[in-house]
Amino acid sequence: MLNLSDDDFDEMPLAEGALVLNExxxxxxxxxxxxxxxxxxxxxxxxxxxxHTHGPARLEAFLQLFYQEWGFKGDQEAxxxxxxxxxxxxxxxxxxxxxxxxxxxxxxxxxxDFPFEAVNFPxxxxxxxxxxxxxxxxxxxxxGEEVSQHTLQAWLxxxxxxxxxxKPEHLKTTDHATIIxxxxxxxxxxxxxxxxxxxxxxxTDLALTxxxxxxxxxxxxxxxxxxxxxxxxxxxxxxxxxDQCPDDPAAELLKTQVNALSRDDxxxx
Length: 269
Hints:
The chain has helices spanning about 5-10, 15-25, 30-50, 55-70, 85-95, 100-110, 150-160, 175-195, 195-210, 215-225, 230-245, 250-265; strands spanning about 75, 95, 115-120, 125-130, 135-140, 145. It is of the alpha+beta class.
């Protein structure tokens, strides 16, 4: 279980915080190997960039190294695969999603002195590039390409509806703790799709250490317990959600589930 506060996550590189999270969910996460691989790649990048001194040109050379020579890329075939959210697997497979690839970019930026900041945009994770005395621009970690304001507006409309307008708060720098929270939810959903319920249960338990009474997280935990045949515990979690969120459309459906589960024999695990 995690014994870290939000401040602890904010004080460490996002990639290292993600490794802590990954290991808390899956003890087989290769943390030591991942850290060694990160150090190896940093050394390789420093060597490759020795002839580049001008900031923007040096950054362009690094992005070429990261996406072309090292071969990191967004996983278009299996975007929702849980492997894309575990840093050790991303380093091994050279595939990821915006938040995991973005965390790696932030890690290298810290070591190579690139002015990167994390942005928790509503549709996906972004990297803000802020050179001194220059207008900030945004990179899509999935591809390494710059994202225009027009594209960001289009993404927002697709996500929230035609009346949505791009606002400064959508592009503000985000603390690591907030990103880790979103990352945890992403991993849980991926594990649920893959029916890896034991690991998904660890995600809900971790989430509840930060927000102990979250009825939606408790509802999800109830679903997981139901899949694990722990019907009595599942019914208890569902009932908590019903009591806390009686007007939610899911409450009526869950009442039926509670009645059905209450009639089942209790299975002890």
